[in-house]
Amino acid sequence: MRRYIILLFLCIPLFSTGQTNKDTLVVGYAGSVPFVVSDKEEEGIVFEIWKEIAFELNLKYNFQEFSSVEAGIEAAKNNEIDILLGPTTINEERAAEVLFSQPYYNTEMAILAPVQKLTFFEKISPLFSKTFLFAVLGLLLILTVVGFIFWLVEGRKYKDDYGNHVYQGIGSGIWLAIVTMTTVGYGDYSPRTPGGRIVMGAWMIISLILATTFVAGIATTLSLTVREDKTITSMQQLENKKVAVPYYTKIKERVRNVAGQPIAVQTVSEGYNMLLNKEVDALIYDEIPLEYIFAATEKEDYVLSKKEIEPQYYGFVFPIGSNLKRKIDLEIIHLQDTKKIQHIVEDWISRY
Q1: Residues 304 and 317 in one domain
Q2: For the chain, where are the E strands, in sequence order?
Q3: pLDDT single digits (tens) 238-274
Q4: 172 and 131 share one domain
Q5: For 205, phi and psi rounded to 5 degrees?
Q6: Distance, CA of 335 to CA of 53 (rounded, Å)
Q7: Strands 302-318 and 105-114, sheet pairing
Q8: Are residues 52 and 88 in the same domain?
């Protein structure tokens, strides 16, 4: 009996050690700045949120870094970690393999692209477009018809004023039509006969409508064709462009739908480096990481466009059957109600 008692006391430390390890959570993390900043020590938006939660729940934990969100999700799926922190988008594919917490932050995709100015020749090129030239030719044709009709009705009767030759008479009629349409009124020509006045009176009314339509059409054509620059600011401008995007099926499909070429990247930093090296023409990523990088760059060289592309919901990841999820959910709701998370995000974005 004495031997069993001694053996029991010897085993107590082993049991105690095992209980401590079990109570210490393995907290994985992966993602992009400013959510995950791990150059020297764990910093970033998700770490500040987690520390608030861990303090309230009195949790002990050890951090474990993963090279990508996908790797972290795989670890959670295999029960190698208790929770994964990061800007992890909640979607149907992932939810089939792991559990997600309440969304702790809602965001959208944005576009970051370098500023590209038009050259002088590119700015005037719309003036030589088919639409513009056809509009001008159409107006000249109408003016010629009006001038010809006026010459038939009145011009040929006053050859001293309108010219002895047909081409002179028609030319004078065209000039009168132009002066009438533009309301310049030089007074060098004016209708004298009732027929001429009817023709010019009708042309006055028609030209008011025609001039308005013509000017509006030209303005629309130029506004659609001429741009201050060629900078990519919308999805419609991604045709035949290389675009860095996150590993997110819907975003890749949307880029392909506009004839763009999506190139998946693990982090926003990887995509931004590709943009700097001119390996891609634009970067589409979550709005907050892009705002963070944009604030740290030369703003005059890049344009950040928020076009409400694909709303994103970030959540923490748990293994299936985790008992930790409900506790974390309640703390996330509390942090949202007190606007603590909003303040953390705003603080990190404003650091640059």
Answers
A1: no
A2: 24-29, 60-65, 83-89, 99-100, 105-114, 242-246, 261-265, 282-286, 302-318
A3: 999 999 998 888 899 999 999 999 999 988 889 999 9
A4: yes
A5: -65, -45
A6: 9
A7: antiparallel
A8: yes
